[in-house]
Amino acid sequence: MPQYSEAEFRSIVLVDVASFSDASRRFLGQLAVHRGLEELLERAFDEAGVGWHSCEVEDRGDGKIILVPPNIPRIRLADQLWNRLLAGLRRHNAVHSDAAVMQLRVALHAGDVRQSPNGKVSPAINFAARILDARDAKSLQAQTNSTLGLIASEDFFRDVIEHDQAAEPDVFRQISVVVKETSTVAWLRLSEPVQATASNGTSDGAGEQSANHVEESIGTEVRWSTDSPANKDALKREALAKVLAGHIRASQRRDPYTSLLIHLDGEWGSGKSTLLRFLSTRLQSADSRGRNRSHSSEKSRQNSDFLIVWFDAWQQSRMSPPWWALLTATRSEIARDRGWWARRWFRIKETWARVRRSGAPYLLALVLLVLLAGGLGFSILQVARPAQPWAEILKILAGIGVVLSVLWAGAKVASRFLLWDSARGAQLFEQYEPNPMLEVSAHFDWCLRQSRKPVVFFIDDIDRCKHPYVVELLDSIQTLVRDAPRMQGNCYQQTPAAYFVISADGSWLRKSYEIAYETFGSDLSPTGGSLGYQFLDKLFQLTVPMPALGATSQNRFLGSLLGVAESETESDIEVARDEINQAIGDDEAVLAAISGLSPNDRGVVAEDAVNALFAPETQIHTEHALRKFARLLPPNPRSTKLFLNTYSILRAVRTLEGGVVNADTLALWTIIRIRWPRIADILRQNPEAIKGIREPLWRSELLPDDLHPLTEDEDLQQVVAHDNGGPLTPMSIRQCCGNA
User: Fold this and answer.
1) To the nearest whole number, what is the mean pLDDT of the chain?
2) Which terminus of the chain, N or C, has fewer Cβ atoms within 10 Å?
3) Is the pTM of this model over 0.70?
């Protein structure tokens, strides 16, 4: 059994070389740094009155553990040692190449140390190592490019530095230390100033401490941020894009002839356009990250898995009818996806297809053009009577030129007005064609069959358009995609599916339909939805709510804008990631692995948790567990599919927000969302209103009068008070909505 000496109170100095193992620092550079560090420390300690050879030193390669004799005053480590270390570093860096340049972090602490045959044993040394590894210290030193950073423990600062102005206590700043199991504060001094705007007061709580950490680090110069869609993911939008891309790919594999309409539901500024950008990248095998969508390279487009058609509804809203702008964008992208010659051949085929659909008017126009051009050419030949042979040749060429010019110009004009090659031509086509949308739908199908890959439409900014255009565009989309397969000649020909992802504020879409059909009144459906809810329910197969920006996410987002990293408990995170990987196949075990983490750490592993939840084996387990709720759904296949799809999306969104919601409770909330959407919106805005459903005495106070009869629905009462996951409470509803 090893023998330990009596505890001896020692001053503890830990030294670490920043980026010692960086890939740019090769072996000879590391040797130069190691040798220079030894020489620098020996000289600095001796000059500071702390005899180097009287200290016990343990070499750690990229640093040192130094135990100072008890008889050495601790103040020498704070005032004189700082100056000598900084002077030595500047001398060393001035005469060495970049590979041997040093940045040092030094930690100061004091405590009991015991000696054993195998080395030193001391919680104080362990604590000093934790504050030396503080994330705040590293980030601030990197931010200021400081040659030297001195980190004093709270006790060392209060007992030694604070009482001696020679140690310059006013230049120290308080930082948070969250490393492994240690969570505390320390005091940092840097050789280069940090432009601080906050005081060094101590925080009273973890959330406030995190906020102070961000505030203290922003300085007086803050980078300007634009309102354009982001290329860098700071809010877990890319993880959600991965889930949606997987859903689209799975739908395309299962049934390549059934179209899918997805609604990204969120208010202005909630990140819908950013999510579309990440989804576009996920649906393409080629790396188009960071490129402007309208300038993606031809090679990138040709190597992608899907053909992406971007449609900015607000920009196109001045072009009427909407189907023409959508069809024009479709054929343009299909053409761009081809090589030069193939692109021209597609244009010719597409024009001929429109000629066939336009029929007699265009052919009659062409006949008249030929007659007109021929007449002009004949007139030129008769009027001109040259005397020389070369003039005869010029006469013939002039006649041919006139004929071709008239034919070309006339064909262009005719195509614009008779082949709906312009917005005005599309309007004329609607007026004289008995059933224009049947021909438009058939041509849309033809274009989809010409595409070499599945087509995905991204409809953005529709919630900036006027209400009539919103309804007209959505009706056009429904007409174009819902009737396939259509009759082609004398037989049905299956058309590849078209996939639409429409980003818009759901309340704007609902209001547009209610205004357009206001003559029908505001009668509710039996499930409590107005006309707007009913139209959207028929239009979309999947509605994806944008993740809420809670306090933790907002702090992290603000920190990313300011260039300040959040503190993470690395040991807890690694343990959680291991547990998540082991729990694949069991969604409840995945959620249990993250439930014990702090909100910030939960956000760090959220993407890992979502990947585990959407692993095929976990999905099978989830679907099996949800079967017990089948009796709460309407008895039709569509409701069952909608329930499973909506549950999976809500689970992904809530997990990415850092929330942990009981699976059965989330299933009940999903049923309310798909069966009673207006009830769900009221509960989302005011979770306390659940009392009005469960207790009749609260109805008049918490719920609109027109919903009172619906609250007596036995099905609704059964869902709210269900044994599995219920009864629903204001807190559980907040968790399901991301508002907890």
Assistant:
1) 76
2) N
3) no
